[in-house]
Amino acid sequence: MSTPSRPAAPDPLDFLAVDASLSAEEAAVRDTVREFGRRELLPHVAEWFEAGTLPDPRGLARQFGRLGLLGMHLQGYGCAGASAVCYGLACRELEAVDSGLRSFVSVQGSLAMTAIHRYGSAEQKEEWLPRMAAGEAIGCFALTEPDAGSDPGSMRTRARRDGTDWVLDGAKLWITNGSVADVAVVWARTDEGVRGFVVPTDTPGFTATVIHRKLSLRASVTSALSFDGVRLPEAARLPLAEGLGAPLSCLNEARFGIVWGAAGAARACYEAALAYTASREQFGRPVAAFQLTQRKLADMVVDVNQAALTALHLGRLKDAGACHHQQVSFGKLANVAAARRVAAAARSLHGANGITLDYPVLRHLLNLETVATYEGTEEIHALSIGRAVTGISAFR
């Protein structure tokens, strides 16, 4: 009788062998984006974060376009037509570098491009999507307002008919890429309900102002938008977007990317903590040799691998056409919370060094404060899950 072979010891960097189930195509996407991020982005991102900006967003957009990352889950118009899992892996590897970089890709592809692809006219798609996929045009998605964050239904931005045109008035806030965008997908209240408009940013009356003094998501351009009598032709309206469900469906696409991105940020913080505690010595021993350190590392391993499993499972469901938006809320709530725990523990394990930009952990921890808020706060996602399991809405 032969002796059963003994399973290999777990890989400390993929403890549950989550990536072992990836297809060759999926692994290739992971490796391509990871290598690009480590070669082209990671050496500079701390400097960008400290400066509070992206110095060359158009150059970055073109780089992302050449990699096929912009609108990569969409079909046609120069988009890659990749699977949900491939898109998720790209988001994971980008956010392992910095949340702001994943946000750039997410806003372009999951929000602005998805809105045009899903709800736009043939002319709108042909005009914008190929250029946006190539990174030759940058888009933004204007839904959030100064007094309408978690409750977008209370938006005050209005579009009124004036002959055959529309006239847009109002303001939007916390708009990623707003001041570098060539086109804005703007959501406004009309007499017929909420409608979406494709607005070239050089239209008279459109103003974008960069938001400064951010303490989070600093390697990203965030803007306030204002619309003062912005006149648009009927052709600017997204013809298939009727009601608030249209922008919310786009937000769900972005949330899916966050599920994966948060897993990437968590992994990056865990890897940094593991390497640091193995090399840092105190009391004549590596910090990793102490029981309290190993307990923290063990908790981080659990969070990192559960987040990776959650992301992959939702990706498989999405590729099968079986992922409900409330399941995406589960993933966003769970994975962002896990990433925040991991980042906080990693910061503590780095000691005083953890507060510097020489290490990635506090940068990730600060970024995750924004990730926890945008595309639905943790409270909103908790209530979404609560409604799913009770059948009772607590929103109103």
From TrEMBL:
Pathway: Amino-acid metabolism; tryptophan metabolism; Amino-acid metabolism; lysine degradation. Transmembrane segments: none annotated. InterPro entries: Acyl-CoA_DH_CS (IPR006089), Acyl-CoA_Oxase/DH_mid-dom (IPR006091), Acyl-CoA_Oxase/DH_mid-dom_sf (IPR046373), AcylCo_DH-like_C (IPR036250), AcylCo_DH/oxidase_C (IPR009075), AcylCoA_DH/ox_N (IPR013786), AcylCoA_DH/ox_N_sf (IPR037069), AcylCoA_DH/oxidase_NM_dom_sf (IPR009100). Residues 24-136 form the Acyl-CoA dehydrogenase/oxidase N-terminal domain. PROSITE patterns: ACYL_COA_DH_1. It catalyses: glutaryl-CoA + oxidized [electron-transfer flavoprotein] + 2 H(+) = (2E)-butenoyl-CoA + reduced [electron-transfer flavoprotein] + CO2. GO terms for molecular function: fatty-acyl-CoA binding; flavin adenine dinucleotide binding; glutaryl-CoA dehydrogenase activity. It comes from the Bacteria. The lineage of its organism: Bacteria, Bacillati, Actinomycetota, Actinomycetes, Streptosporangiales. Its cofactor is FAD. SUPFAM superfamilies: Acyl-CoA dehydrogenase C-terminal domain-like, Acyl-CoA dehydrogenase NM domain-like. This is glutaryl-CoA dehydrogenase (ETF).
